[in-house]
Automatic annotation (TrEMBL):
It comes from the Bacteria. This is Uncharacterized protein. Residues 318-329 have a biased composition (Basic residues). Residues 314-336 are annotated as: Disordered.
Length: 336
């Protein structure tokens, strides 16, 4: 099975693979490779085999994440419908964001942004549930009763899908609304406590959170020596940071063409640099000038389930280690 798209293949090795390498293949082995159609129903391994072993869910989730980083353009190579839906979800996210905030770029103090994003999530959740014909003000228990299902049927179905029965029972017995039981958005501490965070949202590039963009714009608008040095320092950092994608650079070029040109002439030690060469510089810095599927894109249900179960496994393992390493309490008074 292709774990990325949940599609099944009857595949066999070609003559280039050694018997020693093939002997490692067994049921449950995770393999990263290319497939080539030999017949409409049979495929062959057409390239090197990267054998990852029999992975548990946490390591499998990591392997899928690595594949996304290594081969972003092949993520849903055999399922164009999944790729289209993923891109559509990014466009939808941007549309909802603009409708809520009134713009595709905002700058707010970190704590205020955290509050606003939670409000945005609530509205987006309400909207999606409404589009699906679900009343978000009702609890799961009420929705189950209205559908004519028994709680036992729902719990049994959830277990068959691999969900934790305890969590399902908790939801069924809870009177909280569907909206209220969904986990809220929480920014990382470095963003939440930042003086100002700028958020960029784009239908193809996704979103970017930058702590010092507002400061950079102030420095670019100033002409004194200290401001110039400060702007150069931030721009040099931006060239190295993955979070500062090509879209952000193009926004800077559009808003501050002359100051940005002069700053990059200094940073790159290229006195004749012009913004026509910006993409060339970005490619040289390891940035893509074409968008790849961003992190905010939706993922197929089977991958979402895998990631959630992997997180549960890691959490359980961490809890067990903490409990095991905790010193036992001594009984009595002052025992030695």
């Amino acid at each position: 099975m292709n774990w990325l798209t949940e599609k099944y293949y009857w595949a066999k090795p070609d003559r280039l693979h050694s018997s020693e390498e093939l002997s490692r293949l067994s049921l449950g082995e995770i393999v990263v490779t290319r497939l080539w159609p030999e017949t409409p129903d049979q495929w062959i391994f057409s390239g090197p085999l990267m054998l990852l072993g029999k992975l548990g869910k946490p390591k499998l989730a990591v392997a899928i994440g690595n594949f996304k980083n290594w081969f972003p353009n092949q993520l849903y190579g055999d399922a164009p419908e999944l790729l289209e839906e993923a891109w559509t979800s990014v466009e939808r996210y941007r549309q909802y964001f603009v409708e809520f905030f009134g713009t595709n770029r905002i700058t707010l103090p970190g704590q205020e942004l955290n509050k606003q994003l939670k409000a945005y999530q609530d509205e987006m959740t309400q909207r999606r549930l409404g589009e699906a014909g679900i009343d978000a003000s009702k609890s799961l228990k009420e929705l189950v009763n209205e559908a004519g299902l028994s709680e036992e049927d729902v719990a049994e179905s959830a277990e068959l899908l691999g969900e934790e029965s305890g969590a399902v029972n908790h939801l069924l017995n809870s009177n909280q609304s569907i909206k209220m039981v969904m986990p809220p958005i929480n920014l990382p501490d470095d963003l939440r406590w930042a003086e100002a965070v700028t958020v960029f949202v784009h239908p193809r590039w996704g979103q970017a959170f930058l702590q010092d963009y507002a400061r950079l714009t102030q420095l670019l608008e100033s002409t004194d020596e200290a401001a110039t040095a400060g702007a150069d320092q931030i721009l040099q950092k931006y060239l190295k940071e993955d979070a500062v994608n090509t879209y952000v650079w193009h926004c800077m070029a559009e808003d501050y063409p002359q100051p940005l040109t002069e700053a990059l002439q200094r940073c790159l030690d290229r006195p004749s640099f012009t913004l026509d060469e910006l993409d060339e510089v970005l490619v040289g810095a390891g940035k893509s000038v074409e968008p790849t599927l961003p992190e905010i894109a939706s993922v197929p249900m089977h991958l979402q389930t895998l990631f959630e179960e992997a997180l549960q496994d890691v959490t359980r393992s961490s809890s067990k280690k903490k409990a095991k390493g905790k010193p036992k309490q001594k009984s009595g008074f002052g025992g030695r």
